[in-house]
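Q: Structure tokens for this one, please.
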Amino acid sequence: MKPEVTEEAEHPVAYDAEGRPLYAHPAQPKQQVVHLARPTEPVKQVVSDEVKKRHEESVRLFPNLNLSEGEYVISAVRRHPIGLLIPMAIGVGLVLLTLSTLFNYDLFANFFGLTGSAADPAAATLPIVLLAVLFAFVTYLAYYVYNSNKFFLTNESVIQEIQLTLLSHHEQTVSLANIEDASYDQKGIFAQLFDYGSIRLSTEGDETTYKFTFVANPKHHIAKLDNAVEAFKNGRPVQFED
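A: Here is the predicted structure, written as tokens:
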């Protein structure tokens, strides 16, 4: 409902010492509305032939990555194989122990005093073989999950693929513009000898921290990441990595 304009609001009720009119209800300033025009078809960014070539090559090499137009992979960081040393040693050891039991079942049965069908090697063959297959399958799962964790640096963002279990997989993408700090650490004598460590990223605003462990030559990858972030934030093209 439009408010009623009274006569007092239109005419001054008094004057100040300098003769300026005073109103009982001063008129409210009019609100100014600004309309921003948005183009129906925004100007398309020009992508050089070299960038197109890099993008197409990255799409071919990494088909599972969601790369935008003109985005290409600078480096693909994978975990150091030393992280598989303990789980693989345990898995292979269990498989060999199980098969050794099968080939020497007579000694095994005598040692534990087994009698009847339990002492029959033919009856024990299938269970022992199935147990060896189970150990081998679990060992392969450990290998698959470990190597499925990957870290990618592109000319626009950082992409991390995280595989926790066989059925648990998710992907994190952080723009280079949002990265506030990037660092690495190498703890222990083995990390120094075999040159592996952890990469740590922190972002602006939400203060989220991302970490990727068992990285081979982490100092080299952090140097490339720092250069890419600096170039991206300063509007310079990110250098190609051969």
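A few notes: The first strand starts at residue 14 and ends at 15. The mean pLDDT is 83.
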